Amino acid sequence: MISRSRRRPLTVLLALLTLAGVTALSGCSDSSAAGSGGKLTLGFSAWPGWFPWQVAQEQGLFAKNGVNVDLKYFDNYTDSINALSSGAIDANSQTLNDTLSSLSGGAKLSIVLVNDNSTGNDKIIARDGITSVADLKGKKVAVEQGAVDHYLLLLALQSAKLTEKDIELVNLPTDAAAAAFAGGQVDAVAAFAPFTSKALERQGSRAISSSAEFPGAIPDHLVTSQKLVKERPKDVQALVNTWFDTLAWIKANKAAAVGIMAKRGGVSDADYQTYDAGTTIFTRQQNLDAFTPGVTAQHLDFQANKIIDFIVNTGLAQQRPSLDGLFDDQFVKAAPQ
């Protein structure tokens, strides 16, 4: 199993952005830069809401929609975020809070599709004897610092009237964090599927909190450079159309699709099927509803401002990013119904 996490500190991201025009593009293929008219490089990593891209590739659905995609799987989720921010890839699968952190660092990005909401597949798992988040006070908790489940952990601590200072945070990549917990080295872990399966191998362990308790807090997206949207809108449209075609194929071929996605995630088909309830894949209508401005967690603009307040106040971001050009619903609106 490969990690969706391993987030570098924001200072490193800022340095990467500064070097973007000089070094980052030198490592990508000639056809991957936005506006080349050739291949479009799409990044993704380990998360149930992004594994459908593997189905799209294996079933030839990108080609069906007339877009030449180099689908790049990142063993390290943070590398994919940095690759998009620097311009080394054209599009990426990433969370809203990580996208906002990139914007804070100066990246010019657009969210063109909501893949899913995490509705339970991000979890805080604790050893036997710990039954609530409040019980984490003074305990060792492993998490990838600065990544999506660090955000979940901080939300959970806040709801229990605790702060990060009340725990002993052990900063580890998500796969290593889950393994450390399973091996009895820490008292709790914050992780996402498929690594939750590894953590729950520890006898007596249980989930004491999950993303299900924070509706809308962890939406996952197809994020592109604003340059790609401007220079290659037909290719962006083809990506969005491919996503909805893929969901239709999965619905009609569930067993085959589970096999493809489970293999990519490094888990059994049976384990993969347990993730269904914890990742809510968005329909076209749910996308349209999310992009519509509003005042509840259902609406991306509301959730983004809420996340910005949180990540700035907790030091996960150094400054408030502008949301100009971030939410671009034109492609979802134009997708066939």
Attribute tags:
337 residues; alpha/beta; D-Maltodextrin-Binding Protein, domain 2; 2 domains; six-stranded mixed β-sheet; five-stranded mixed β-sheet; 17% strand; globular
What does the model show?
The protein has 337 residues and is of the alpha/beta class. Helices cover 40% and strands 17% of the residues. The chain has 15 helices and 11 strands. The strands form 2 sheets. A 6-stranded mixed beta sheet has the order 2-1-3-10-4-11, with helices on both faces. Strand 6 (140-143), helix 6 (148-159) and strand 7 (168-171) form a beta-alpha-beta unit. Helix 10 packs across helix 11 (254-265). It is globular and about 55 Å long. 53% of the residues are buried. The model is unreliable at 1-36 (pLDDT under 50).
SSE topology sketch:
Blueprint: H1 10-18, E1 40-44, H2 52-58, H3 61-64, E2 69-73, H4 77-86, E3 91-95, H5 96-104, E4 109-118, E5 122-126, E6 140-143, H6 148-159, E7 168-171, H7 174-182, E8 188-192, H8 195-199, E9 206-210, E10 219-225, H9 226-231, H10 233-252, H11 254-265, H12 269-273, E11 279-281, H13 284-291, H14 300-313, H15 330-334
Parallel strand pairs: 1-2, 1-3, 6-7, 6-8
Antiparallel strand pairs: 3-10, 4-10, 4-11, 5-8, 5-9
Helix pairs in contact: 2-10, 2-11, 5-14, 10-11
